[in-house]
Amino acid sequence: xxxxxxxxxxxxxxxxxxxxxxxxxxxxxxxxxxxxxxxxxxxxxxxxxxxxxxxxxxxxxxxxxxxxxxxxxxxxxxxxxxxxxxxxxxxxxxxxxxxxxxxxxxxxxxxxxxxxxxxxxxxxxxxxxxxxxxxxxxxxxxxxxxxxxxxxxxxxxxxxxxxxxxxxxxxxxxxxxxxxxxxxxxxxxxxxxxxxxxxxxxxxxxxxxxxxxxxxxxxxxxxxxxxxxxxxxxxxxxxxxxxxxxxxxxxxxxxxxxxxxxxxxxxxxxxxxxxxxxxxxxxxxxxxxxxxxxxxxxxxxxxxxxxxxxxxxxxxxxxxxxxxxxxxxxxxxxxxxxxxxxxxxxxxxxxxxxxxxxxxxxxxxxxxxxxxxxxxxxxxxxxxxxxxxxxxxxxxxxxxxxxxxxxxxxxxxxxxxxxxxxxxxxxxxxxxxxxxxxxxxxxxxxxxxxxxxxxxxxxxxxxxxxxxxxxxxxxxxxxxxxxxxxxxxxxxxxxxxxxxxxxxxxxxxxxxxxxxxxxxxxxxxxxxxxxxxxxxxxxxxxxxxxxxxxxxxxxxxxxxxxxxxxxxxxxxxxxxxxxxxxxxxxxxxxxxxxxxxxxxxxxxxxxxxxxxxxxxxxxxxxxxxxxxxxxxxxxxxxxxxxxxxxxxxxxxxxxxxxxxxxxxxxxxxxxxxxxxxxxxxxxxxxxxxxxxxxxxxxxxxxxxxxxxxxxxxxxxxxxxxxxxxxxxxxxxxxxxxxxxxxxxxxxxxxxxxxxxxxxxxxxxxxxxxxxxxxxxxxxxxxxxxxxxxxxxxxxxxxxxxxxxxxxxxxxxxxxxxxxxxxxxxxxxxxxxxxxxxxxxxxxxxxxxxxxxxxxxxxxxxxxxxxxxxxxxxxxxxxxxxxxxxxxxxxxxxxxxxxxxxxxxxxxxxxxxxxxxxxxxxxxxxxxxxxxxxxxxxxxx
Length: 940
Ligand SMILES: Nc1ncnc2c1ncn2[C@@H]1O[C@H](COP(=O)(O)OP(=O)(O)OP(=O)(O)O)[C@@H](O)[C@H]1O
Hints:
Elements: E1 3-10, E2 14-18, E3 21-32, H1 39-43, H2 49-52, E4 55-61, H3 64-70, E5 76-79, E6 83-87, E7 90-94, E8 101-103, E9 109-110, H4 111-119, H5 121-130, H6 136-152, H7 157-167, H8 169-174, H9 179-199, E10 209-217, E11 222-230, E12 233-238, H10 249-264, E13 271-276, E14 294-298, H11 301-319, H12 339-349, H13 364-393, H14 396-401, E15 405-406, E16 410-416, E17 422-428, E18 441-445, E19 454-461, E20 470-476, E21 484-487, H15 492-506, H16 510-516, H17 537-548, E22 552-556, H18 563-576, E23 581-585, H19 588-598, E24 610-612, H20 634-642, E25 646-650, H21 651-654, E26 664-669, H22 677-684, E27 687-694, H23 713-720, E28 725-727, E29 730-731, H24 736-746, E30 752-753, H25 756-759, H26 779-795, E31 811-814, H27 826-841, E32 849-852, H28 856-865, E33 869-871, H29 873-876, E34 881-887, H30 902-909, E35 912-919, H31 922-926, H32 929-939
Parallel strand pairs: 4-7, 9-11, 12-13, 22-27, 22-28, 23-25, 23-26, 24-25, 26-27, 29-30, 31-35, 32-33, 32-34, 34-35
Antiparallel strand pairs: 1-3, 1-5, 2-3, 3-4, 5-8, 6-7, 10-11, 11-12, 13-14, 15-21, 16-17, 17-20, 18-19, 18-21, 19-20
Helix pairs in contact: 3-11, 4-5, 4-10, 6-7, 6-9, 7-9, 10-11, 13-15, 15-22, 17-18, 18-19, 27-28
Bound molecules: adenosine-5'-triphosphate.
């Protein structure tokens, strides 16, 4: 029996005498979440009031009492294998010798963090803050681990080493290493692995082996990736040497933590293996001791419990987000490699530290900032943990309807690739939507990702044909029977935000920081005095402001105002001046979109001077020719990135160990209003000057928790330093009538159409009534395509309907008199499908029409009724359609906001070029001042 609940009170520790001698105990009062159903029956207490009152006393015996020294009221407690008895009519619980006590079980601790915590709690904190820097032992360690995996998958040693060293080309190049020397060193390490594999009679061909496996334990709140499992026993590889007979303590802890996760899966683990690969490489004449690389050790229940208690210490500290001092451990600072960093961080942040403090303390506002964002990021981490938890708390169908999983797949086999990895296929027979995309990392499983067979894989294909059928193809290290594919949450995003804070605040330049902390005003030079963009005064001023900025400049670009165009012109000016430029944005799509404009033949930046840094899967096909080749000759890789005038990468990649080694004169960051402050800092920290391009009146950063991360650095700076910004006030997208509301409400009436043609566009321009059509910003290509469509249409001999009068206006409001039911309004969905059909029958191409709805359920309802693109606002940001139809869903009243933020309405309505149709309920919309004005405008 297990119980789980919130701590209400913790009594003092006591010693009692029992038949087993003197024992320690602590009594804790808990509010139990789910009382065991059989509680009353077990105790034979007929009092039903007990069942309504979930407060119970729990006695923690022996070592578990220690966990209560750092637990606090309000924390959650999960206790397994409890005993139930009664004391004066009250049911009471107590731990048994088989119990585990898990504090804050929802907080998921990584195995490697438990390892560093055991070495020293401050090491855990410093690793989290600073990330893993580019250092040779780290890169070599990664290569050896990969070769290990390859050997387990049956690959030939030499070809594995060649490939893996090749793959690390860029990192080795930046470290100034020679490939041959690295190959030799890896070979020495790998010899230990090979020898051990041979000698253990357990050849890789045997089924008892498997390489790295990601494991999560819902009970113990632990996750991690074991290097390998041999007959269910965790094997950890260490690239160092250890000539003692026993494995190192922290290494044992790591292997034992994996064992715990296996225990949670019902596997009894009582041994662990540590493989010290350097042991075979050390000189036997000089070294004494135990030089065998493999060291087995027994994993007794006591060790597993110790691991849980260490994990509990971390969870408790993270609960109130306190900073470890190092005194919690017996670690000896003078032998610690991290001693200097530890003292510097303690000194700069004025933290208590066992190693002491050095250096000058940072100004109070910087420390306050770091602390505030550290807390915000840790809250975001918790929200990611909530996502992990849904892997086991939600049923498969709940996950599917939440778009978090594709379920009920039919396995369709697997093929082993040359690399030893597997290509796994499954058939889907429905067109269920999900958040999964090609190129994503996902969790594939045979049905249950936690207790079943599961593997982290990369999606290669997810396509669905017209009938809704399709083949899913993924690649993974091990073969699985693919029946389900889940969105796999990742903490990399939060980890990268922390390292960006560290790079900017702790390692950043004081002069640069002063301006972001309002200790001095941003300054501007006069170096740019030419006319760069004659056709658009605001864009021209923006380029000049950006080139002149000594610190930062802000380019505020409402919808369709040519932000991307301006960025391209700006880059050509900067490159011509000899500046080295970082071009960044949150998503790969945004980076590639900006790069497309930079590579326009009319823009004076040569392809040879640009490199695109990122993963193959993330980068658009059209950018593959300028993608940085990070494999092969180390020197060539390093030169390629170091000599580039323009380096383009997402802000997440800016936090990678390769990009953290780069420096730039200027960082130009697109869609900066959608970036959290720390995400922006990841790029800012790499450059002397910064240009942020964005629009804080459109979508804010997407974050899970309600914290300061919701406000972008762009928004904060434009409010504190409006003089550093330029508003692009001419838009090339919308008819005058469509843009008017947005201009008035969001841009102080300053947004105007760039040309008369833009201003006067109408839906009828899309019809054959106007054969030549007016010029749109799509240009001749667009007209030709349209003419082809019209010709095809006429060839069809289909009757050409004309567009009814009420759909000819650029802005239309329609009230279908529907009823909201949950997050859908089917009458509205039906009417929207009719409107779409009317447009199409009139000759408008379906690809010119888009529908936006506030909720996914309504998106699904409309999608079932029409073939045009239907989506939420977030998916539409950055794109535009000739005709946009918006479904508001709400009827009668507006108890909850429709788009939760009026900026979403701004984005929705500004997606339309020629026609905007608002479909909603008059009564509901009139009940809110903002929507009432929208309605008034639409009905004009
Ligand atoms: N100065 C200009 N002269 C002529 N055309 C321009 C100019 N600036 C932008 N355009 C055109 O306006 C259109 C929109 O420009 P762009 O894609 O740069 O806008 P954007 O602000 O990035 O759009 P979004 O709001 O979707 O991010 C493009 O077709 C572009 O060629």
